[in-house]
């Protein structure tokens, strides 16, 4: 087996030196366990938080152990009556080629149907990121037809689904993304009404003006993935009784300060601001996965992936994700 371990903790920006590729034997299976050959590894921004030692909503990754992470793969050996060789499964296999999973534990492994949805999509649009989009949009923002919803990191795994789900509910969807190519995709492929390039509008004044033009009726819902200046500019255009789903603050994940310039706007506009962690909303997963799976299977919803090749490429691809080098869901192809 090959695994990638976290061998040191970064201060500020992480580097490939924080990771090490390690060879390890595959242990024999005990009763209840299955051996999964992982086909794709998901790279996600939360992994940056787990590289730190400090308190966060996720437990820190232990040093010199295999990096945790979502995977999809195929059962290649089974000592569990519920799983047969050949079953396609999604789980938390980690940064490794093979994982031994105690499938008798509830929720650690889920069988998936790849007839109409490609296996890799279960890590993105029809997986944790898609459900994140659904939970924040549907349960916190709850957009009404004609309302305007803004989402940052709009071409990414979560953001791309937020806008499409908002459009399906009759809302106006406005994205914020890095670069003309991503913005083009967000409007032309994903069907958002507008998209603002945060690289071309990199200061508050310019972003605020661009939002004013893209949101002539103000902003009723904000799905926040980035924080900092982008959040400040959105709050400036917020309507009374608007809602903010606080999903991520990626502009501060390397420890950069992300002050809020005008918190009084939350009061002035009588806003609802709610943070959430998707794994604490398990009751919504079935409805979310049903809508997302149906949408991807029928082509109603579009998704895009950036796929790094081979386990050894995972650290570099992960560093790229934190800098916006990914275009859509960042995956690593393992098999
Ligand atoms: P994405 O596919 O959106 O990739 C991350 C993107 O963030 C990059 O492509 C880049 O897009 C953007 N970005 C990175 N740094 C900056 C910056 N300094 N300023 C502006 N944009 C930046 O990742 P995900 O869809 O997986 O995650 C999106 C967000 O959702 C993250 O904040 C993540 O932590 C959060 N999340 C939260 C969950 C929860 O339960 N609360 C669950 C899953 C994700 P661009 O090039 O467009 O700038």
Features:
335 residues; Quinone Oxidoreductase, Chain A, domain 1; Rossmann fold; 7-stranded mixed β-sheet; 9 helices; NADP-dependent oxidoreductase; ADH_N_2; oxidoreductase activity, acting on the CH-CH group of donors, NAD or NADP as acceptor; oxidoreductase
A few lines on this structure:
The chain contains nine helices and 15 strands. With 335 residues, it is of the alpha/beta class. The protein folds into two domains: 153 residues, Quinone Oxidoreductase, Chain A, domain 1, CATH 3.90.180; 152 residues, 3-Layer(aba) Sandwich (Rossmann fold).
Report on this model:
This is NADP-dependent oxidoreductase. Residues 12-332 form the Enoyl reductase (ER) domain. Keywords: Oxidoreductase. InterPro entries: ADH-like_C, ADH_N_2, ER, GroES-like_sf, MDR_fam, NAD(P)-bd_dom_sf. Helix content is 26%, strand content 25%. By secondary structure, it is an alpha/beta fold. Strands 3, 4, 5, 6, 7, 14 and 15 form a 7-stranded mixed β-sheet that branches. A 6-stranded parallel β-sheet has the order 10-9-8-11-12-13, sandwiched between helices. β12, α7 (264-268) and β13 (272-275) form a beta-alpha-beta unit. The mean pLDDT is 97. Bound molecules: NADPH dihydro-nicotinamide-adenine-dinucleotide phosphate. Residues 44-46, 129, 132, 153, 155-159, 177-178, 182, 198, 225-226, 247-248, 250-251, 276-278, 321, 324, 326, 329 line the site of NADPH dihydro-nicotinamide-adenine-dinucleotide phosphate (NDP).
């Amino acid at each position: 087996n090959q695994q990638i371990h976290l061998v040191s903790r970064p201060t500020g920006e992480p580097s490939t030196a924080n990771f090490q590729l390690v060879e390890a034997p595959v242990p024999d299976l005990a009763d209840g366990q299955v051996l999964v050959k992982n086909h794709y590894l998901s790279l996600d921004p939360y992994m940056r938080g787990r590289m730190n030692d400090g308190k966060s909503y996720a437990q820190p990754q232990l040093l010199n152990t295999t990096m945790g992470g979502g995977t999809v793969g195929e059962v290649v050996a089974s000592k569990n009556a519920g799983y047969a060789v050949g079953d396609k499964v999604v789980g938390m296999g980690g940064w490794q080629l093979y994982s031994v999973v105690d499938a008798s534990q509830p929720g650690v492994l889920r069988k998936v149907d790849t007839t109409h949805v490609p296996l890799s999509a279960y890590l993105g649009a029809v997986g944790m990121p898609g459900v994140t989009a659904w939970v924040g949009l549907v349960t916190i923002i709850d957009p009404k037809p004609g309302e305007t919803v803004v989402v940052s990191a709009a071409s990414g795994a979560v953001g791309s689904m937020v806008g499409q789900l908002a459009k399906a509910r009759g809302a106006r969807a406005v994205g914020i993304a890095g670069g003309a190519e991503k913005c083009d995709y967000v409007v032309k492929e994903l069907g958002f009404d507008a998209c603002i390039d945060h690289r071309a509008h990199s200061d508050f004044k310019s972003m605020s003006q661009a939002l004013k033009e893209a949101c002539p009726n103000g902003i009723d819902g904000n799905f926040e993935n980035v924080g900092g200046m982008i959040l400040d500019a959105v709050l400036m255009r917020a309507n009374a009784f608007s809602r903010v789903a606080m999903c991520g603050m990626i502009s501060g994940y390397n420890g950069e300060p992300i002050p809020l310039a005008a918190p009084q706007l939350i009061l002035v506009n009588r806003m609802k601001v709610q943070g959430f962690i998707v794994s604490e909303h398990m009751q919504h997963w079935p409805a979310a996965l049903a809508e997302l799976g149906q949408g991807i299977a029928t082509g109603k919803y579009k998704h895009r992936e950036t796929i790094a090749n081979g386990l050894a490429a995972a650290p570099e691809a992960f560093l790229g994700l934190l800098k916006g080098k990914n275009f859509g869901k960042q995956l690593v192809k393992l098999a």
